[in-house]
Amino acid sequence: GLAVLYNNMLQSLFQSQIGSLLVVFSVIALMLLLIFKSFKIMLIGLIPNIFVASSVVGILGLMNIPLDIMTITVAAISVGMAVDNTIHYIYRYKKEINVTHSVDMALQNAHTTTGRAIFYTAATIATGFSILSLSNFFPTQLFGIFTALAMLIAFISSLTLLPNLLVKFKVFQ
Question: Would you say the pTM of this structure is higher than 0.85?
Answer without folding.
Answer: yes
